[in-house]
Every structure is written in C-alpha cells, then in structure tokens.
Design a protein that fits this description.
Shape: globular
Strand order of the largest sheet: 14-13-12-11-7-10-9-8-15
Helix content: 25-40%
CATH topology of the largest domain: Rossmann fold
Radius of gyration: 21 Å
Strand content: 15-25%
Largest sheet: 9 strands, mixed
Distance between the termini: 15 Å
Number of helices: 12
Number of strands: 15
Order of helices and strands: EHEHEHEHEHEHEHHEEEEEEEHHEHH
CATH class of the largest domain: Alpha Beta
Structural class: alpha/beta
Length: 366
C-alpha cells in the first residue's frame, strides 16, 4: 500500500478485538499486557463466548457485541484486531476498514491470494493500515538468524526441516494439502524474512505415508528459487513421530563466507571458518510473537511507516503456499508472478467497487 492514516497522541490506542475463541484469548492476553493499547470492545457471534473470555481475563467495562463497526462506534475505538477464521477475514476487515479503522489481522490473510488481494486494495482505497500478523517473525532468535546471515555474504541455500506428529482431530485431519495450507506459510514467510528477498518459482511434491492419520497429504518437499539465485528447501511432515523438530522447524543457511544453523528454539549458531570456531548469536529479548506483532502494529500507526507484514507485502507469502499447491497438483514448476497475476484477475471478479478495481487493475508487481 502507498500510505495510511496515522494516529497521533500519547494515550493508549483503543482496540476492538473480533473473535473470542482459543486464539482470541491468546490475543486478549497480549493486548492486556501492552500498556500502549487498551481493549474497549470484544466482538463475537456468540455473545456468551465473548462474555466468558472477558470474565476469564479478569476484565471489566469492555463492550460486547456482534458487529465490529458498531462496537467501535460505541467505544470510540481507534483500531481493530481480527482473530476470526480465515473465511471471515474479508467480511470483518472490509467492515472495519470502511468504517475508518486500521486492522491487525491474524494470518493467513485469507483462504486465497485473490481474496487477500481484494482486502489489500480495500485498505489502500480507505487509506487505512491492514497488517497481517505473521507473529513468528517476532521470535528474537529468528531475527538474530537474519542479522547473522546478512553478514555471511551471498546465500546459496536456506533449508527448513519440519517434522511433527500432532493429532489434532477435527477439520485438519480432513483437509486437502493439510501441511502446505495450514502450516507451511510460517516457514515460507520466515524464509522471505531471512533471505531478505522475494520468491521467483517453486517445484513441490506432496505425499501421504501409509501410516498417516490425515486424509490429505501430510508430507511435502518444496524447492523455491529466490531472486538472486538462492534456493529455499522446505522438507516437512505432520505425521513424523519421534525426534520431532520444534514448531519453527530446524534451519540451515549456507553462504559464501560461512553457515548458520537454528534449531527453532535456542540461539542460532554461526560458523565463519576464517574467524575460528562456531559461535552462538546474541539475542535481543524484545517483544515476541503476538506481543511483537502488536507492538509493530502500534508503532506503524504512530509513525506512519509500513510494517513488515502490511497486507500488500504479505501477498507473496500466501502466494508461495498457492504456488506450492499448484506445483504439487500439476507436477510442474510454478512461477510466483503467474500465481499473483491469476489472483489479480480473480480479485477483479470479486468486487464491483470502482475504487478497489482501480487499485487491482495494474499487473502484479514483479
């Protein structure tokens, strides 16, 4: 997006949160722990769920309702935090943005790149910030990895191994492309962050081991080409009992002047052969995960500088997922720009607003 309205003043920003389920309760904790914001409203289709969440959080004086715009009007809110399911993101975000409210929205931005593109265009037309909360970018250890990798010269390969065996039950075990669609965006977005570059194309294979308890493919191997020639390799499984990795996976970076490894939890280890033995990176213990995402949102609104995960920028992380799925389905290499261009065409068909269509009319940027 080209610009958005800033919020001046030194008082805490007044927030309305939409969504009071399990993830919603995690966001309530993040909001109440941040002195720069104040929760003034909670929206959920189930008002009893909202009331219970507020009571469990020990909060009082919070407006409850079913409409983000209405609760925001009653409370004179400054912004909205959207913690609904992805299928509801467009409706909630559009309502908030059209009411003149910036939005911090849980990932993924939408079920499809096209829908996410419409949301980004609505935000641009409204002159409001729409930020997607890719909260794993706010692991201090991941930020340390990016800092160290930037000093290793030209990058050849970044690799993520992700091996877990969760028995979720419910909808995930019936999802097609379950690993790619429900989990891989964390690693894909982190790869963009670590490489500080954009993906060009991907070749991906999916498969489902005979012991898998998922209907869809629980395993995937994807090789992305990034601008500049680096390759990002993702090798993952959601039915891998024993010797499991962390939820962030296990990372290795190979570059011209050395290598780095990160187990997804502790400090990255960096080895520059010319400098001696491997050393652990220093960690800056700043705001983490949801807290870090919220702090970045508030900072962006205060100073007017687009955050890392503004909706327009986040499109390429979501496009990496769609491209990987397309490659797995077709058996061919898929270009990211082709996915974005098809999404742009699909997005134009999703809206009849001329101001939004105008912003969608230009071909996707390379």
């Amino acid at each position: 997006m080209t610009g958005f309205r800033t919020l001046e003043g030194d008082r805490p920003l007044r927030l309305v949160q939409v969504g009071a389920g399990g993830m919603g309760r995690a966001w309530l904790r993040a909001i109440t722990a941040n002195p720069d914001v104040e929760l003034v409203g909670l929206v959920d289709l189930d008002l009893d769920t909202a009331r219970a969440a507020i009571a469990d959080a020990g909060l009082e004086g919070v407006e409850i309702g079913r409409s983000a715009a209405e609760v925001a009007r009653i409370t004179s809110a400054d912004a909205v935090v959207n913690v609904t399911v992805p299928e509801a993101h467009l409706v909630v975000n559009r309502e908030a943005l059209e009411a003149g409210l910036p939005v911090l929205c849980e990932k993924p931005a939408a079920p499809t790149v096209a829908t996410a593109m419409v949301q980004a265009a609505i935000a641009e037309a409204a002159g409001e910030l729409l930020m997607i909360s890719q909260s794993r970018r706010f692991f201090p250890e991941l930020r340390a990895l990016r800092r160290e990798v930037a000093e290793l010269g030209t990058i050849g390969t970044v690799r993520t191994d992700f091996f877990k065996a969760p028995h979720f039950g419910g909808f995930r075990e019936q999802m097609p492309h379950v690993l790619l669609v429900d989990m891989a965006i964390h690693a894909f977005d982190a790869a963009r962050y670590v490489l500080n570059a954009e993906p060009v194309s991907v070749y991906c294979e999916e498969y489902n081991p005979e012991w898998s308890w998922y209907d869809g493919a629980a395993n995937a191997v994807a090789v992305f080409e990034f601008a500049g020639g680096a390759r990002y390799v993702y090798d993952g499984s959601w039915c891998a009992p024993g010797l499991e990795t962390s939820w962030n996976g296990s990372w290795r970076v190979s570059a011209a002047d050395g290598s780095a490894e990160w187990d997804g939890e502790g400090a990255p280890v960096v080895h520059r052969p010319d400098a001696g033995e491997p050393v652990s990176a220093e960690i800056d213990a700043s705001a983490q995960e949801l807290a870090g995402s919220l702090a970045a949102f508030v900072a962006a609104l205060r100073i007017g500088r687009a955050p890392e995960n503004a909706a327009g920028d986040n499109l390429r992380s979501l496009a990496m997922v769609e491209a990987a799925v397309q490659s797995a389905e077709t058996g061919v290499r898929v270009r990211i720009d082709d996915v974005l261009e098809q999404a742009r065409q699909d997005a134009l068909a999703l809206t009849d607003r001329e101001d939004v269509r105008e912003r969608l009319s230009a071909p996707a940027a390379g």
